């Protein structure tokens, strides 16, 4: 019983551990071993140098040691230097050694070598030594009998003892160095591939999931308050959190808890933000990972990471797993060799499918995933039982944009009276949450650049312009002729759109280069969900107005219309082949929303149909072009005046057009246009 209690206690303790990652035991680190080796190595070096004999020069050696018969032995090491051994008796009796010792030159307690003598070449040293000894012996043997002479020479002549010694520390160093280098490089590569961080143990962590874990102890500050708009999506994800917290409420009625939910929507609409808010709000552990984190250059790693992720998640259940950009692994699997299956990715996906809906029950684990390409996902992934729910996160509408502005304006210092959230939201149709966050940040930077103490309305407008059109490039070198062409091109757009009922309402026209564009006409697109054939035709006509103006006024066309033509061609093709807006082809659409035919070589229609499509597309475009040309010819004078004004002023507004062309018929103006008249760029003409 006692033991069990302890177990429970330990479990409780573990539960309360802070949880950036799983609780860790103090780890043995290989760096300690490196450290110890280095210290030993240094200590040995130090010891060997501090104990080495003192160096002496030839004079001291010859006159004070050799001449006085103190030298016992001379060892020449590696033909590099000589070690001098002094007789023990001499060391004790002779005062020169005492004084030398006091000076730190000798070492009595040592049995030798006591001194070192360096020389240039061993031959020279041998010769000098022999000469010196011969001299000394000659002196000693004066007046001695030949027998005595021989004895003295035999006893007193000190031969050189050669010795070859290896410096094993250096040898060891050079042996170890290449191996250490190879291991070092290997560890480095492995660590890079393992995603960095951690010790050398990372090498063995390939198959481990790289998900970061958040729970009540890790501070995730994002809450649902930070997510503006997206009310329906919020309700759905909140419900998911509720499933985990009170599963009984649902299971009592016989319902099953959903396995997963997929957040689908264009980039920057707040999918990741929503997931972060779930992490912040839910009182359950939250594993976050990106689809690409599963993929590695080694086969089998992805699948093993999926397994590990689910294993960890099950241990922490109830919990949520969030996989961002799931299309990185969830793409539809190839059907044949031609479509080129990526085995490793498919293995990873298969493992994910099995984990989500395998024999093993994932009780209390809910998977949230985000993607902006739901169309390319494998259908097996989307079936009920895996991602039961798809939560669509769309681009924000007017009201939602207001709410997003409110969130992102909060930390900014701005003039309260001059900036109305309503106004800003109207300026930004088609903008995503991320764009709006960017505008707010950019406006602060623009205001700071102008040394303002608070952000003004114009800074916001400049920020919007900058984000849509890129940086203003007033210093771009453009010749007078080119400038004239650009002015007429832009005037063409402005004039044609002014004269067409369904063209987007114009706001301003500029010939100041910005980003890649050399000039631009800015419109405020209507917020609409469906577009009629007439609207599309008018839009195409307005887009072609630029090139038409070049032809009408200069009888010479340029490359400046590339962007216009690309857009018009795509639009015309979509009208004919996708939207069924062509009489000859009828109500047929070759659009493939599943993305399955993306890589197939054959078209879903016959050669004859292909020809008809081409003919109809080119007919649509030429009709729109001729219409634009006719409008410009009919209003030649006015367009001329407009272009000249644009050349002098560089920017002209709607009011200027009204002065020249007279006001638009009331029924031309859309509801929104009447409400608001300011800036948003829809079209530009890159001349790159
Ligand atoms: P994605 O849909 O591509 O995952 P994110 O969630 O990463 O987009 O959004 C990027 C940024 O845009 C967020 O960090 C946030 O600042 C801003 N954002 C997007 N949508 C919203 C929203 N609904 N409310 C507030 N901010 C938002």
What are the SSEs and their pairings?
Elements: H1 2-16, H2 30-50, E1 54-56, H3 58-66, E2 71-77, E3 81-86, H4 88-93, H5 95-102, E4 115-118, H6 122-140, H7 146-156, E5 160-163, H8 168-193, E6 212-214, H9 231-245, H10 247-251, E7 260-264, H11 271-281, E8 286-290, H12 301-316, E9 319-324, H13 327-330, H14 343-356, E10 365-371, H15 379-382, E11 387-392, H16 398-409, H17 421-427, H18 433-449, H19 457-469, H20 480-499, E12 506-510, E13 517-523, H21 533-554, H22 562-578, H23 607-634, H24 636-649, E14 651-653, H25 654-661, H26 671-675, E15 681-686
Parallel strand pairs: 1-4, 2-5, 7-10, 7-11, 8-9, 9-10
Antiparallel strand pairs: 2-3, 3-4, 6-8, 12-13, 12-14, 13-15
Helix pairs in contact: 9-11, 12-14, 16-17, 16-18, 18-19, 20-21, 20-24, 21-22, 21-23, 22-23
This protein binds adenosine-5'-diphosphate.
Adenosine-5'-diphosphate binds at residues 227-230, 267-273, 370, 404, 407, 433-434, 437.
Task: Supply the key terms.
binds adenosine-5'-diphosphate; disordered C terminus; alpha/beta; 26 helices; disordered N terminus; six-stranded mixed beta sheet
């Amino acid at each position: 019983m006692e033991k069990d209690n302890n177990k429970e206690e330990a479990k409780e303790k573990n539960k309360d551990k802070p949880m950036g990652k799983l609780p860790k035991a103090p780890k043995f680190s290989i760096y300690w071993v490196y450290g110890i080796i280095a210290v030993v190595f240094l200590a040995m070096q130090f010891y060997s140098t501090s104990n080495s004999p003192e160096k002496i020069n030839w004079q001291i050696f010859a006159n004070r040691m050799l001449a006085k018969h103190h030298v016992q032995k001379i060892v020449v090491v590696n033909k590099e230097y000589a070690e001098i051994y002094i007789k023990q008796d001499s060391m004790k009796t002779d005062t020169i050694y005492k004084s030398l010792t006091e000076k730190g030159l000798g070492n009595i307690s040592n049995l030798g070598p006591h001194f070192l003598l360096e020389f240039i070449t061993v031959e020279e040293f041998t010769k000098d030594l022999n000469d010196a000894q011969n001299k000394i012996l000659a002196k000693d043997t004066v007046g001695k009998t030949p027998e005595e002479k021989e004895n003295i020479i035999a006893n007193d002549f000190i031969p050189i003892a050669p010795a070859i010694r290896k410096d094993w520390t250096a040898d060891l160093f050079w042996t170890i160095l290449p191996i250490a280098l190879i291991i070092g490089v290997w560890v480095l590569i492995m660590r890079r591939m393992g995603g960095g961080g951690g010790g050398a143990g990372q090498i063995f962590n390939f198959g481990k999931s790289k998900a970061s874990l958040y729970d009540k102890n890790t501070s995730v500050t994002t809450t649902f308050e930070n997510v503006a708009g997206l009310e329906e999506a919020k309700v759905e994800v909140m419900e998911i959190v509720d499933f985990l917290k009170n599963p009984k409420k649902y299971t009592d009625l016989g319902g099953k808890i959903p396995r997963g939910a997929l957040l689908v929507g264009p980039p920057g609409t707040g999918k990741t933000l929503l997931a972060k808010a779930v992490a912040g709000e839910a009182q359950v552990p939250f594993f976050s990972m990106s689809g690409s984190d599963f993929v590695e250059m080694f086969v089998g790693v992805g699948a093993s990471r999926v397994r590990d992720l689910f294993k960890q998640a099950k241990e922490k259940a109830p919990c949520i797993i969030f996989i961002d950009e799931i299309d990185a692994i969830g793409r539809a699997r190839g059907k044949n060799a031609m479509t080129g299956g990526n085995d490793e990715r498919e293995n990873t996906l298969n493992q994910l499918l099995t984990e989500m809906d395998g024999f093993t029950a994932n009780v209390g684990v809910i998977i949230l995933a985000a993607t902006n390409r739901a169309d390319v996902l494998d259908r097996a992934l989307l079936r009920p039982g895996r991602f039961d729910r798809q939560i669509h996160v769309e681009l924000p509408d007017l009201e939602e944009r207001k709410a997003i502005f409110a969130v992102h304006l909060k930390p900014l210092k701005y003039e309260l009276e001059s900036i109305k959230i309503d106004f800003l939201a109207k300026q930004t149709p088609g903008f995503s949450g991320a764009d709006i966050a960017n505008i707010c940040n950019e406006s602060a930077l623009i205001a700071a650049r102008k040394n303002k103490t608070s952000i003004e309305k114009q800074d916001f407008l400049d920020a919007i312009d900058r984000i849509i059109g890129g940086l203003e490039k007033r210093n771009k070198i453009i010749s007078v002729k080119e400038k004239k062409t650009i002015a007429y091109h832009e005037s063409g757009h402005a004039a044609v759109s002014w004269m067409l009922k369904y063209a987007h309402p114009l706001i301003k026209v500029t010939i100041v280069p910005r980003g890649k564009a050399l000039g631009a006409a800015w419109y405020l697109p209507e917020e609409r969900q469906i577009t009629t054939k007439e609207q599309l035709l008018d839009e195409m006509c307005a887009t072609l107005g630029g090139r038409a103006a070049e032809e009408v006024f200069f009888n010479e066309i340029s490359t400046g219309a590339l962007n216009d033509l690309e857009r018009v061609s795509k639009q015309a093709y979509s009208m004919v082949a996708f939207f069924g807006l062509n009489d000859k082809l009828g109500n047929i659409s070759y659009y493939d929303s599943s993305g399955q035919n993306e890589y197939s070589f054959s078209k879903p229609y016959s050669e004859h149909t292909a020809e008809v499509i081409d003919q109809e597309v080119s007919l649509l475009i030429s009709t729109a072009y001729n219409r634009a040309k006719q409008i410009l010819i009919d209003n030649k004078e006015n367009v001329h005046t407009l272009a000249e004004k644009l050349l002098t002023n560089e920017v002209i507004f709607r009011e200027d057009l009204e002065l020249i062309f007279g006001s638009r018929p009331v029924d031309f103006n859309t509801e929104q246009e009447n409400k608001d008249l300011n800036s948003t760029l829809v079209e530009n003409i890159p001349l790159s």
